[in-house]
Structure formats: C-alpha cells, structure tokens
Amino acid sequence: MPTGVGAVVDVSNVCWSGRLPPLSRHFPLLARLELVRDAWHRQYGAHAPLVLVADNSLRRALSAEDRQALRGLERSGELRFAPTADPVLLELARDRGWFVISDDRFRDLRRQHPWIEEFPGRFLSWEWHGGTARLGPSGIRPEPDHVVSRALEYKELKHGQHIDTRVPAHDQVLRSHWRCTTRGCVKAFLWPDRLLDWPSIDRGGQVVCTCCGCPLEEAGPRGAGRLFVLSDAAGGAEFLRFPISVGSAVQLGRGDLSHGINLTASELRPPREVRRVSRRHLMLSLEETPNGPRAFAVDLGSGNGTVLHRSSGRRLEPGERVPFAESDRLVLGDAVAVRLSGRLHLSAEEQAPPGLDGAGGSRTFLD
Ligand SMILES: [Zn+2]
Predict the structure, then answer these.
(1) Distance between CA atoms of 367 and 365, rounded to whole angstroms?
(2) Tens digit of pLDDT for each residue in 150-179?
C-alpha cells in the first residue's frame, strides 16, 4: 500500500448497517463506525488517514450519547457534515485518489462520477466474521443506463419533492394532476388549470405547492408516459430525449415527417451517419397492457434496417412489431441507437413533445 493512501467513510451508511452488530437491527449506532475504523487501521496501517463524512440527518437519528460523541469527532476535525454526504465524499475520494468505505452503489451519481466504474477496487464495504469486521471490495459493477436513470429519478423526487415512490400513497400522488388556487402564488398564476411540474408532500403528508406551500386541489388523472433516448450508435453521445404517452405512437426518420421526429432537425446534433437512416425508418409506440404500459417498435421498411440488441443483435423484418424493454437497444441504419429511459414518472412539462423545426412539434404525434 503506497504511503498517504486514505479513505473517506460514508458515516451514516456505516452507522445504519445491519451487517454490523447488532446484526439485522435497523437503527443507527456510532459503535459500528468504531468497528470499521479499527478494521481500516488494522488492514491499511495505523496511520492511514480517514475522513469521516455524515449526512446532517444523522444527528437527529442518533441517541443522545452517540450525538455527543459525534460532536467530539466534529470538533476534532475528523468528521464533517453535509446536507447529503454522497456527493461530498465522492469528490474527496476522487480528488485525493482515496478509497470510499460505503455499502452504497452510488447509482444516482454514476454519470457525475464516471471514475466509480473505472476504479471499482477503490470502493470498500465490510463483512462481520468471527467477531471482527473486515474490509473488502464492495462489488461496484457497471450499471446499465436505465438503472442509473431510475436511481436518479428516485433520488430527485425524494429529495426535491419529499415523494418516496416506494410508498404506494406517494406513488399515487404522481398519478394525478394538481392545481394551486392560492391568490398571489406565481405558479397558480402561470398554470391556472394544472401545475406543469411536480407537487411536494409536506411533513403532515399533504400534497402542497412547491411555490407557495399551500395544499393543492386534485385536477384529474395523469396519463402515463415514458422517455426514449437517442444516441450516436458508435460514440454513445446522447442527442435527444423525447416522451411518448400511453396510446401514442411516433415515427423516427429524416426530413419533414408529418407524424414523427426529424432526426436531422437543426436543433439536434445527430451523428454524421444519420444519413443511413431512412426518411420513415421506425415507429415507436407506448401501449396499455395488463402489466402496465409497454413500448413497441416497428421497422417501417427502412433501407439500412434496424437491429435489435437483446442478448445478441438481430435485424428486424420490415413491418415486424417487437416489444421493446428497458434493457433492449435498437440501432437504426448502424447510426442511431434508441433506448428506453429508466424514468417512470414524467411531469406534465416533461411530457411535452420536443420543439423541433420541420417535424417534431406537437402536431407530429399520432394519437
Ligand atoms: Zn401555489
């Protein structure tokens, strides 16, 4: 181990870990941090530096005694607090070339921190065995794009709106439109019929306006939709995301399509090989099924074909309709890749079709 190599500890994650004694008990304990600190010094050297980073919320969750011990660590300069620890500890570890000690997979931060997948060995977690804690690789693996999108959506709704999509009552909030009727509220003025962004849930469980904080009125059910992502099939650079709502279909092609998205619109920066895409190449649709909304794709008899990448690549027959899953990728004319975003909830604003020249405006969507 080279000298000067240290680690950044995800303190809240360690303190809450039911994989350290008392095992399987889900409450935070500072004693778990001590076990991990001991393991670190035993394995990496008594003087190997450690920086401890904790979420602000940990203070409230700990017992009075642990809280006091935590203040001691803070005063000694070993521990720092952050509103959310993850971005802070990842930046520290990246800049110093240090280890991260955490059980977290940091899925929501993979796009901001591509080094996570480049250096999985720098992520350590713990095992409790024979009465001692031992640090070892936490098992970071590359994550598909839709898994990252799903993790980001979860985090954004939870932190931004206090909506936890794993709670059924919260999930239900996302299935309605909402209206603010408060006089003087800017959002009520801008969007009198229904809010175009998400509401928030307050501490009492009420659905409230993110602008004025007042309770909202329900304004009818919200149709579901999914986002599709277009990228350069060779380089991977993303150049457009667009929504399709349940019961709608969109064609992808080149030039002025009457019912589709023009991949050569001047607002886009498609790959140069986009000329291999036919004028009418592919139709994507989102349909209601007993198992929820499902995406389908049909090749419209394109010149250079569409290849479906599932476990291996297979060219679609012209007119063949295939269900399209999150782990699938379609490649149009060897040039443009299509995938389904992992996001499950689109605000009314995100459900608006892209404003593109020629085609791609609202009139281009088939209903
Ligand atoms: Zn309001």
Answers:
(1) 6
(2) 999 999 999 889 999 999 999 899 989 999
129 alpha carbon – ligand 1 mean position (Å): 54
Helix 64-75 / helix 30-44 crossing angle, nearest 10 deg: 40
- Rounded distance, CA 338 to CA 300, Å? 15
Does residue 180 contact residue 212 with C-beta atoms inside 8 Å? yes
Q: 192 CA distance to ligand 1 centroid (A)?
A: 10
Other C-beta atoms closer than 10 Å to the C-beta of 231 total: 21
State both tokens at 190: 């801008």
Q: How far is the CA of 193 from the centre of ligand 1 (A)?
A: 12
**Ramachandran bin of 82, using left for φ above 0, alpha for ψ from -120 to 50, beta for the remaining angles:** beta
21-36 pLDDT tens trace:
999 998 999 999 999 9
Distance in angstroms (rounded) separating the CA atoms of residues 9 and 102: 7
Instruction: Provide the pLDDT confidence category of residue 367 given band limits of 50, 70 and 90.
Output: very low
Q: Which of 228, 239, 258, 250 is nearest to 326 (CA)?
A: 228
Cα-based torsion angle of the residue sequence 256, 259, 264, 267 in order, rounded to the nearest 10 degrees: 100
Q: Which domains does the chain have, with CATH numbers?
A: 7-137 (3.40.50.11980), 145-221 (no CATH), 225-364 (2.60.200.20)
